[in-house]
Predict the structure of 3-isopropylmalate dehydrogenase.
Amino acid sequence: MAKHLFLLPGDGIGQEAMGEVRKIIAHMNDAMSADFVTDEGLVGGCAYDAHGAAISDADMEKAMAADAVLFGAVGGPKWDSVPYEVRPEAGLLRLRKDMELFANLRPAICYPALAAASSLKPELVDGLDILIIRELTGGVYFGEPKEIIDLGNGQKRGIDTQIYDTYEIERIAGVAFELARTRKNAVCSMEKRNVMKSGVLWNQVVTEIHKAKYSDVKLDHMLADAGGMQLVRAPKQFDVIVTDNLFGDMLSDVAAMLTGSLGMLPSASLGAPDGKTGKRKALYEPVHGSAPDIAGKGIANPIAMIASFAMCLRYSFNMITEADNLEKAIATVLDQGIRTGDIMADGCRQVGTGDIGDAILKE
Amino acid sequence: MAKHLFLLPGDGIGQEAMGEVRKIIAHMNDAMSADFVTDEGLVGGCAYDAHGAAISDADMEKAMAADAVLFGAVGGPKWDSVPYEVRPEAGLLRLRKDMELFANLRPAICYPALAAASSLKPELVDGLDILIIRELTGGVYFGEPKEIIDLGNGQKRGIDTQIYDTYEIERIAGVAFELARTRKNAVCSMEKRNVMKSGVLWNQVVTEIHKAKYSDVKLDHMLADAGGMQLVRAPKQFDVIVTDNLFGDMLSDVAAMLTGSLGMLPSASLGAPDGKTGKRKALYEPVHGSAPDIAGKGIANPIAMIASFAMCLRYSFNMITEADNLEKAIATVLDQGIRTGDIMADGCRQVGTGDIGDAILKE
Ligand SMILES: CC(C)[C@H](C(=O)O)[C@@H](O)C(=O)O
Ligand SMILES: CC(C)[C@H](C(=O)O)[C@@H](O)C(=O)O
């Protein structure tokens, strides 16, 4: 059966990185009749340039209909002063919200070949394997009111609203507990219950659902600020971390940085299983941004984008062997010392975006 | 003229750490007629035990009247299930709010003797000297509505509100720019303007006041998630960071952890200068918490509390020489290899809370 992929390379290095994934898709179609059908659209600054919105309704429809969306990156100085409603990020946020992609899976793993590239001492990150589960459709990202009011007298007021309902916390906690069972069976939930009412509710709901349905999983609670510190102090203490949209944004970026290079890390954003087919809407994207400073030079590291496609094989198409092989190929290429500039080290060979893709393909 | 200090040791190791500051105050009164007059109150769990509130009105009044408040730490498992309104942290939040301590100064410095204790590679933190300026009386900490609503059907809704007005952003940015002038003259402002309207306003106001009054200071803007990553990647790129209450909470804890030991770092929370006297209300507290696991054993590191008193000498009493001397004494004691357990290293001598205080006093 044809597998429909909708590609949204976006801006900056998103374009180049997606090129390497296209090669892998073509190879899988040729060599193993994988039957991927791809279509492509615009998101972010390039979509704004083309039709004045960060994503068009037509492309949104295609994203909704696809089996999976592959997303590159959005943004760049060129669009720094476009109106808030059509800024590049609005495209990504609309995709997350309209597709109801509430569960963002952000693995922070440290490839052994790269432990030395981390700013942390190698022994603290060697073999690191954390999975951050970030709530992605709620919290301060989408709560209303969200506005700037003119108070007169030269004063303005900026307002954002953090909202979480029981069901939103339950479903993200469920994802965390279920994935923990396939790993080291430990979940750490992070919030600021000492300051935020949404944190109080978060803590209660996670505790209750744990007791009711997942008491076999080890559960800890940590204040989000302490969690950030512990990530820097001793990241290997964690298995699965579950947290809200904004804390997840901060904490997963800190965790990503611990691993040595942001250019390496993929993410998956999943919706709820469909009642009839059991299929989840899904979007896969690298954790890194559009890196406008190096875009178009053919030097960007495509590994995060390729690893995002591996997650896509795993979660959207249940192609576990293929996903394993692709991930192994990434590790092998790193072991061989073939590197883009961002992860260069003594004794390695510096290559371009395309060479990395080719080397992974060869494996 | 008598200098009125109000001491709030609070819970856990707050008690022991404050004991060492008392020694220093007594010494300064004896040896240099410093004329400190101290009074003492309860805050946090111990205040709740004594009179059912995290701080009593009587103690609040004393705090308001004092020249400076020295605060230890609050909280512990004993009070984990007291009602939200009287939880230990409520005492600290009330002090910040009622005293209008909008400017929280959190230096993250790395004592050369401790660079090896950081989880970061020593060359990344050796000589690190960042000042984080955190807005402390606004944002999601205090905005209304802040509540949990029962929606029926077993569903609840947790709500918190992030609010910033122009004047709040202006005054905290002003503090950051002014302090930057006494340092390396560079400010980095952090928010999430790509997601939050309060972040959009924050960015605008900081940019405008910079242009109008502080254009001699170098100003950069960074998204808060990227800021967290950059702190881990290359912390020495920063001089002064200015950010909101919640991001400041997260980022200053990450920054504190970078330096090797949280047990080392002080903070100052300042109000606006009084129109008549020019004096600022002020509270000084260590960045570490109450550490209930080691409380009462005489092994806690009192250095953050002592360094907080040094900040008090500097900012509340303009006793610059005395502050410098106290800070130098801390560095000397560390150089001598006299350490509490949290910062022990090979070849150092492990001592208790009191020994550190005595050693610093000797210097
Ligand atoms: C681009 C931006 C809106 C986004 C976010 O804040 O969620 C990014 O930082 C991320 O983490 O995916
Ligand atoms: C104790 C708590 C309320 C407090 C905060 O969140 O501000 C603490 O984490 C801090 O950073 O001073």
